Amino acid sequence: MKKIANESIDFAQQHHEGKVIAEKKTYKILDCNYCGFIHATAPQDVGKNDLYSSHFYEVEKPDYIDSNINDADWWDFTYGLRIERGDKIAEEPITTWLDVGTGPGLFLDAALKRGKMATGIEPSLAATRYASSKGHEVVNAYFTEKVAEVIGKFGGIHCSEVLEHIPNPSHFLSIIKEVMDEKSILCIVVPNDFSIIQDIYTTLNPEVEKWWVDPPFHLNYFSRQSLNNLLLRNGLEVVYETCMFPIDIFLLMGDHYVGDDEIGKRAHDRRRQMENAVNKTENAGILVQMYEEMSKLGIGRELITFAKKVPNL
Ligand SMILES: [Zn+2]
Fold first, then answer.
1. Cα pseudo-dihedral 129, 130, 136, 139, rounded to 10
2. Lesser CB count within 10 Å: N end or C end of the chain?
3. Nearest to 187 by CA among 149, 142, 148, 241
């Protein structure tokens, strides 16, 4: 029988091989034949449980909590679409959500507002304290087998901007499956990397480094196809796909935001204003269709993928 990646928990012991498509710091970025997706090679100094427990919000992203709070309306719309989509896909409306990597708890806010019960898991103490201060139930931990054992099952699992940071995504998905039953819906959100837009921009601007390559924080780089393959080989079948706005299209319009936070913020504000305008006038259905089509073309900045357990696995 062919050996597949999720049979082994120890990532470093697996036989990773493939074309090296980028290098950064001491890392090589491999288009791995074994895993079926792009990842950093043998991440010897990652997977240690201190990367996100305090370092992430305090050193790498000091403004992350504040800037998310300032965009609260937009996040409510963004997360609301996912919660509503979950209800549409599930056989019956989802009543309980687990948000893995909950950060400041904005997904929990959106779930609660829509009458759902929601629990968060968050390794950062600062973010946990903030989310808990709003009355949310948040477990301050990494999402491990031990946590999965005690936390119970959920109708919906939301896991946004997490999988790209995880040293062994297959193993992580096996833990997620522990909190799913056969009806549960998983919503995974990851950056869409080595995309056509990134390719166009770096081809026309060869002096610009591949800014999305960022080990040890970003270890894995997914496309629609490679994410779907990863889910399927872990017993999860994709039931719905969409994406977030292709914010990197601003690069092609002359807004060179790489390395310039001012321009980057302006790009985000314009996207946010556009989506809020469409939503306020009750035209959100247009955005929903637009992003579904964009995801088929591989141009959304983040992939939003819903999956269920493959029956009888
Ligand atoms: Zn690999």
1. -40
2. N
3. 241
What spacing in Å lies between the alpha carbon of 123 and ligand 1's midpoint?
A: 25
Q: Report residues near ion ligand 1: CB below 5 Å.
A: 16, 32, 34-35
- What domain range is 303 assigned to? 2-309
- In tens, the pLDDT along 15-67 reads 899 999 999 989 999 999 999 999 998 655 554 556 676 556 665 566 666 66
Tally of CB atoms within 10 A around 64: 17
In angstroms, the CA 194 to CA 191 distance is 10
Cα–Cα dist 9/110, whole Å: 34
User: The CATH number of the domain where 179 resides is what?
Assistant: 3.40.50.150
CA 70 – ligand 1 centroid, Å: 38
To the nearest whole percent, how much of the chain has pLDDT over 90?
83
Q: Residue 221 and residue 30: Cα distance in Å, rounded?
A: 10
Distance 258 CA to ligand 1 centre (A): 28
Q: How far is the CA of 189 from the centre of ligand 1 (A)?
A: 20
Q: Are the C-beta atoms of 21 and 30 separated by less than 8 Å? A: yes
The pLDDT of residue 5 is 41
User: What is the C-alpha R_g of the chain?
Assistant: 19
Distance 35 CA to ligand 1 centre (A): 4
The list of the chain residues with pLDDT below 70 reads: 1-9, 42-51, 53-67, 69, 313
The Å distance, Cα 187 to ligand 1 centre, comes to 23
Q: Which residues contact 173 (CB under 8 A, 6 or more apart)?
A: 6, 230, 231, 234, 236
- Measure the CA–CA gap between 120 and 222, rounded to whole angstroms: 24
Report how far ligand 1's centroid is from the alpha carbon of 15 (Å).
Answer: 7
106-113 vs 72-89: helix crossing angle, rounded to 10? 60
Q: How many domains does the chain have?
A: 1
3-state secondary structure of 12: helix
Query: Residue 288 and residue 92: Cα distance in Å, rounded?
Result: 21
